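Researcher: Next sequence.
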Amino acid sequence: MARDQEARLLIEDYAVVGDTSTMALIGRDGSVDWLCLPRFDSSACFAKLLGDETNGRWQVVPRHWSEGAVKRTTRRYRPGTLVLETTYETDSGTVRVTDAMPPRDGHADLLRRIEGLDGEVEMAMRWVVRFGYGSAVPWMQRIEDAEGNPAVSAVAGPDAVLLRGHVLPEPDRRQQHRAHHTYFTVGPGDTVDLTMSWYPSHEPMPHCHDVGEGIERTEQYWKDWSGRSTYDGPYAEAVERSLITLKAMTYQPTGGIVAAPTTSLPEQIGGPRNWDYRFCWLRDATLVLSALLGAGYTEEAGAWRSWLLRAIAGSPEQMQIMYGLHGERQLPELELPWLPGYESSGPVRIGNAASNQFQLDVYGEVAAALYSATTAGLSPDDIAWDVTRTSLKHLETVMDKPDSGLWEVRGIERQFTFSKVMVWVAFDRAVRAVEEFGAKGDVEHWRALRDRIHAEVCEQGWNEECQSFTQYYGGTALDASLLVMATVGFLPGDDPRFVSTVAAVERSLRDGCFVKRYETTEDLDGLPPGEGAFLACSFWLVSALAQVGRVEEAQDVFEQLLDLRNEVGLLAEEYEPGEGRMTGNFPQAFSHLTLVEAAATLGAHGVRGSSRSARGTDNPTDS
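Model: Next structure:
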């Protein structure tokens, strides 16, 4: 298992487990290659994903995996859960590895159970802990915990982890980077349990969880959660998996929702479009909220609304497009030079400078989310309505300004059409709140502003020569965000202008089932051109096709997109059609929430099931 003999895993070769505070990415090779502890935005203690083994990993796999000892690998989640099972078939026998992160009980745990199913299989374990995103070598020692259990301890600065279990690794004296490894054999009925616990280094060692009980508790937690879903539409399996993934990206202590659990997975292999997504974008979070509300999850809606009100509390002109998990405002962007990046796609970044951008669309998304929460049955909140009215008052003073737009371009600010559409949404949802729920406000004034911005978009955002709305006022370029004009209610799906815009976006940005966000040019977004197809935009196309009456084609595109999921049902941010692989951060909330939205739209247009067999989540893959 020497690191120079191992091939780099594709992004889709990973699955995730999580405890609604953080997530671990686990490869088909049994290696935990990314884990930030104790929360999503903490520094990683396993960072091989963006470097190599010297940056940290925890691998449990049949010995000689990299030399072809494993003939078949099968992965699945236990139905309705985030408990991962990976089964390895070898010439000598079959073994199953179960991974889970139980709901927090005072500290974070990653549990691994290895079970012999038939024959005998020699297993290999490598444990390389590196705090500080793979840079800090910890002090390692073999100890006994407070209960007398043997353990391996790793401590560096504020962080400490304990590895306990039936088998523990020994220092690999041949490796200067201080790895720990061991070999052990499992036969039929044998069970080897392992648990890794994180805790603040200045505190007492945490108690040791029973692995079997922890896995059972984790399974029951997720079954209880997924069993509450009220979704009653087509593609229920894909929707359930996406909803579970979205729930796993909710930070339970505060209700904030991260865009992804990873940073710097490239939008283009070898390119610089590598961003940290471990924060709470108001846009992404509000759309996740809508997906969860559509399945009856009002508890999450209430927690998110409380998080939102805390995060944006204060002066409305200081509202940001994103915040930290607890509502932090300062998210400075840094580069980590010791990490080469996934497939040498540097730089590796932490933090996100886009937090300082001005984006008009967030006002509309927040207003729409608060409105949807009320329509879904969440009790009206006086503070939320006061915040809405104050924000609208500020929006009235800035609505005519150019902004950085939905895609956070790092070029010059422009009058982006989608931004103006979402200004319309903000005032429209305020009007509806007055009309439908009896909220108090200057509804006549809001109606006038709503009508004014609608007329402006129809005049300045429309290009007669292109027969389409365009990316920004006075331009000719197209943008996939225009596909949502019917979804948000700006125009009906059968409006000739929307029908023509959908066709224009297809001509400019569509390739089969794939849709690019826009044509990347350096003068627009300040970066070298080139990226994969944006999966959220591709799912937007599904909804738009259904809304303009092309339902059969919409269903076919949707099923092609479902086939892009890996065998455990997960999607990254983008897909590179030429290479046939995922790109971008993984798993991506935007991709999964638009999958849910597209499935619901198909259901609303009469689709009741699959027209062919879409890829399921229990399918095996050959090693």
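Model: The chain has two domains: 3-223, 228-621. The first helix runs from residue 131 to 134.
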